[in-house]
Structures
1.
Amino acid sequence: MSKADKTRQFIIEKTASLFNCKGYASTSISDITEATGLTKGSIYGNFENKEEVALEVYKHNAALVSKHMMCSFGAQYSTCLDKLRAMVDFYKENWDIVYSTGGCPLMNAATEADDTFPTLRTQVKKSFEEWADKTAEVIREGQLNGEIRQEYDAEEYSYLFIMLIEGGLLLSKTSGEKKYLDLVLNRILIIIDGELTA
């Protein structure tokens, strides 16, 4: 990694929580210089503008979520149903980290990804699609091997799970109470064990 690449990565990592907590629009160049200890010249020497920093920070934050999520779907789980349960467990077990770092970066960016920042909106859409595609893939695999009932639409259930999780995260983050997230996570487990299981 070149010195310039290292500096860019340093800026991204140092501001990842800042952007997620304060917001992509509200975070200023002064906030970035304060968080990194670098000058404005150094920031602009490595990024074209604040929007480029914000976009790269979002990609970084989304990649961390994706990495943890992919662990839920890993080979250590012998059944597809266990992989879906592991996705739920990820949010049950990591609420404190999600809460302390500003909430779900996908949801936070989605609320700001309007017509004024179309490149962020495109990236957020891609993140949700990748999550949904991977979840649907697990459901379809479970249908093929007889674990999951055939009559259900894998894509519909994958988006249903995402909507429930993101809604629970939103209410829990806003209220500061984990009970809303627990409510939806428990409901997803009921759906997995009651509806989907063959």
2.
Amino acid sequence: MHVPYGAQGDLVRVHSCEEWLYVLSGRLRLVLGESVHQLDAGDSAHFDSLTPHRIAATDPAGADLLFVHTLLQSAAAGLCLPQET
């Protein structure tokens, strides 16, 4: 995922799942609730997405991330998981 500089900085997200991200290049500001974290290339973060969160690239070239999330806590998980019989 590429996060352009100046994009998404004010967008606060809250949803039911877990997220994991790994910064491939650039610098990223990750806000989790009231905590602000500066992540450089090689840094990672894992958090519960019910915590209000937002990300923003702090380098003019943006930031590239490996981004994974799970729907296991979501009502939509039934779309991804086999149904029990």
